[in-house]
Amino acid sequence: MNAEQARRVDAVLRQLGIPGVVAPEDPENTAGPWRVYDTADPAARRDVTADALASVAAKFPEGQPGAGPMRGFAIPPEDG
Q1: DSSP state of 26
Q2: How far apart are the C-alpha atoms of 44 and 38, rounded to whole Å?
Q3: How many angstroms separate the CA atoms of 7 and 11, rounded?
Q4: Which helix (H) or strand (E) holds 13?
Q5: Is the distance from CB of 20 to CB of 38 less than 8 angstroms?
Q6: DSSP string, 27-74
Q7: Residue 21 burial (CB < 10 Å; 0-12/13-18/19+)?
Q8: pLDDT tens, 2-38?
Q9: How many Å apart are CA 50 and CA 72, to the nearest integer?
Q10: Is the confidence at residue 78, as pLDDT, over 80?
Q11: Which helix (H) or strand (E) holds 23?
């Protein structure tokens, strides 16, 4: 995900009460890809993107209209 997508993912995680820090893979390159980590410290962090995705999906009942994403993050656009 890029920086703009990361901002929206961060907002969704907070809304759903899911822990995680959304940050760039390379702290020196904010234009590069971003992930979800367990802590903000680049030296000690662990990638928890898959766990965060599973937590988002678990918040929505399977088979229900509008159910959570099965792969990746589904973040609605800001305008709708």
Answers
A1: S
A2: 9
A3: 6
A4: helix 3-16
A5: yes
A6: TT-TTS-EEEESSS-TTT--B-HHHHHHHHHHTS-TTSTTPPPSSS--
A7: middle
A8: 888 889 999 999 999 999 999 999 999 999 999 999 9
A9: 9
A10: no
A11: strand 21-24
What are φ and ψ of residue 59, in 5° steps?
A: -75, -15
- What is the token pair recorded at 4? 């703009």
The single-letter code of the amino acid at 71 is R
* Residues composing the chain: 80
pLDDT of residue 62: 66
Using alpha carbons only, give the angle 33, 42, 77 rounded to the nearest 5 degrees: 35
